[in-house]
Amino acid sequence: MKENIQERIRIVEKTELIMNLLQYRMYEIRYDFTMKFNQLTQQRNELKTGMMLKETESQAAFKIIETEKEIAECQNTYDAQHRCVKEQMLVSTKVTEPNICQY
Question: What superkingdom does the record give (predicted)?
Fold first, then answer.
């Protein structure tokens, strides 16, 4: 009985550690996305408000389009990474639950 309880505790602790690591990874992904997104959004806004007066309209328009593409790519990358970590969390939970219940 005591060994069973100790084994459950070990499994729960390992699961907790894995979840903490995955949650930290989720935080890193969100932080990186937010920083990049804010930078690109600011860049786009500066282009739109004419902060770069040296540029001709066509150059500014081209840069705005490129920035919009980068923003979309940034969002897609974030979504993919976020989904991946969430799936890892689900898999981790599914793998450890039966082990906890068997003891």
Answer: Eukaryota
State the DSSP code for 55. Answer: S
Contact 14, 74 (CB under 8 A): no
Question: Alpha-carbon distance 35 to 61, whole Å?
Answer: 23
Number of domains in the chain: 1
Domain containing 19 equals: 2-102
CA nearest neighbour of 74 among 48, 39, 24, 26: 39
pTM: 0.77
Over the stretch 15-46, which tens digit does the pLDDT of each residue have?
Answer: 899 999 999 999 999 999 999 999 999 999 98
